[in-house]
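Quick log. Single chain, no ligands specified.
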Amino acid sequence: MAESENCSEPSGASEMLKRAYDFLKHGDFQAAQESLDAALRLDFDDPEVMFAQKCSGFWLDRHSRAQAMQNPYERGEYLLSQWKSFTQFLKRQEDESDDAVYAFKQGVFSNALKAFSAITSEAGEASEADLSLRLGRCHKGRGEFETAIGHFESAMGHRKDDAEIIAELADALAMVNETR
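-> predicted structure:
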């Protein structure tokens, strides 16, 4: 009986890990943390669970800080800047899980997208080109390259010779194997 219990624990931890990743992909860091805690209780030695916990530790405070920001533009910018810090954090980690990194990336870029999408044209917080550029980056980060291309093209309609926009557009086009 003890053997079957040991066999069920990792699958229970795997199920909780999968659940955490689903929460992350939708930007729910708190629910993800609860699932990660449950996975850790089920299998304390699982390297993927431990890696995901480290990543969650990195993001929980930052996510709370972002949620406390009233200005959606600043919230989105903060999240994108913290993604850059996270990529540096990842370089210092020994064990890395592509599934975990992907889930966190989806969550961060989803929350940044929500923030930038909350900006209305009346708010005047960002020019239309800047907003299109940021929306494009969020979609690109989520792997939604066609949507990102549309936003980058919209941004180019306002600032045709902007090197930053051209570079983002070229990168997104390369991701869909299109060489315009």
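Confidence is low (pLDDT under 50) at residues 1-10.
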